[in-house]
Design goal:
Elements (H helix, E strand, L loop, with lengths): L2 E6 L4 H16 L5 E7 L6 H11 L4 E7 L1 E4 L2 E4 L4 E6 L5 E6 L20 E6 L6 H11 L4 E6 L11 E3 L2 E3 L3 E6 L4 E7 L2 E3 L4 E7 L2 E5 L2 E2 H10 L3 H9 L1 E6 L12 E10 L4 E4 L8 E7 L1 H13 L6 E7 L12 H7 L7 E6 L2 E5 L2 E5 L3 E7 L1
Helix pairs in contact: 1-2, 6-7
Length: about 375
Amino acid sequence: MPYASSMSTHEDLGVAAAETIGQVLDKLGSSPDFAIVFMSGYFKKQITKIQEAVNKLLTPTALMGCTADAVICGGQEVENQSALTLFAGNLDGKVSPIRISDSLDFSKVASVSPAGADAHTMLLLADPFSFPAEAAIDRFQSTYPNMKLIGGLISSAQTHPTGSLFLNGEIYGDGAVALLIGGEVQIEPLVSQGCRPIGTPLIVTKSEGNLVHELGGQPALQRLESIFASMDEDERLQASHGLHVGRVIDEHQTDFTSGDFLIRAVIGADSDKGLVAIGDAAPVGSTIQFQVRDARTASDDLVHKVSQLADGDGALLFTCNGRGTNLFESPNHDASRIASCIPGEVVAGMFCAGEIGPVSTQSFLHGYTASAAIFHD
């Protein structure tokens, strides 16, 4: 098996590091090409020791890691306790560590990376307070339109973190760190935004920024009220607590499924002007459809997305810190679904303050989403 994952929930750092590193070495049999560490906030003040231990004992060619509110290993999501998890693998040298200070750094990724010439995927961990994620992702997409960007914003601090990211021998309190991957390994993205459409797709006929004035020539709020009027009481209650809107990414399509929409929140409405405000721009001519998000829909969407995957050799999972037991009645919801398509449950990841992954062919920053990178060798 070219990949391995491991976890320890021991409160003693020395024991936790020894357990996770030892398990990976036993499974791989040698030092890996890359390793990614996710640690709960419990170990945040010991990030230097964790980094040093992994570098010294595992000796990966490329190493990155971060802190998180909760971490994932196999089919488990470990919330509200000490936990250290490790994911490692071999890619025949086609992996390069990248430090990204701001959005402009994306323009030089390929030129500074040995994997740049045939790179197809970037795995990104970023600080949500200092890193302009949406602007950086837009720049990345325009500079590397054929490259997938998958990852998440770290979630282990309520205020600006200090030293919550690391890359090889350096520790950072801002910006982002990444691994650029090339070669023959295939990395398949999975993005489950957890919404179901209501009503029908509608063309934006008048808008200003994120303010949608008209849909199909009628006031946007009037359209939304008509949709609500056609729903039963339970559906209206669900919609009132989890109303979103999906914007179609590929307008060349004639039929749309859940994976064709970029989901954003409905953030307000003006009854006098008949407009609806959403959490994204809605250009005239774009297609949108109102959506509802709840636990059942989120579960059904992820199960459906996983059912479409071929079994993988390993997976990284970045899921929202608003999911987990905050959304689902039972624990380990997202991790167990992803692990079901990975023989040996070689899965690791974290809860995020924002998830990154592609919709259609473009990568975006998401919320309340599960984003995964499925490795196929």
